[in-house]
Amino acid sequence: MGYYEIMLIIRPDVEADGHQEVLEDLKAAITKEGGDVSTILDWRKRRLAYEINKHKEGHYYLVYFSGQGTIIPEIEHYFRVTDAVIRYMVVSVEEKDFNAAAEKAAEAASAAEAQAEKQEEAAAAEETAAVEEPEVEIVPEVDEEPEAEGQTEVTEVAEKVEGQAEVEAADEVQTDSKVDE
Amino acid sequence: MRRDRGRKPKKKICSYCVDKIESVDYKQYEKLKRFVTERGKVLPRRISGNCARHQRQLTRAIKKARIMALLPFTSE
Fold this sequence. Notes:
Radius of gyration of chain B: 14 Å
Oligomer: heterodimer
Strand order of the largest sheet of chain A: 2-3-1-4
Number of helices of chain A: 5
Number of domains of chain A: 2
């Protein structure tokens, strides 16, 4: 059993549905022969270094799979008969690179999720920011007014509490807290 | 005693060894760009300073990248 990496370029004028179709067909072809597709990385649309069949751009995909080497002729046959694929290359990779790619894909997926969450939070924070802002503005005023020691201690504690709250808020939405400060 | 022929030998530094990269990856074509001339030819070892092992891997990586249109076979 070996570990392989396929890089393929899909014609730029093919819609997203077409991409999925190619990838699904490819997956089916690999699994039919007893292979196992581990990762698919979307390299997005890129400018080609030179024209291929008059195309100046192409949508790149990386597919990692493990299985018998006899699968490769099958895949190559599929690519040759498929119109949407303008270039492909199957390369054997070492196991650690193979796993690294899988990890990278998992990371990218979780990062995308986190980013989506962050965006949601940021949007939510923006909404609440309008409410929070007056509170933040009051803090410096409190700092300046009290001159008695007892009072400053109280405000210090208050500051600490608020500071912690700010830190917590900062953890959630870093960019927003900077603006507040 | 070093024979001085008017030019100091340039210190060879293999950037892949410096970065402790085991194998050269054809997918990192932005990095490979540093090792090709403006016309797209592979930069010789005497200029790039790569070690023999990595230079061999590099030429193969560049050739793979060319096939996948990540690097040009020739420009201009």
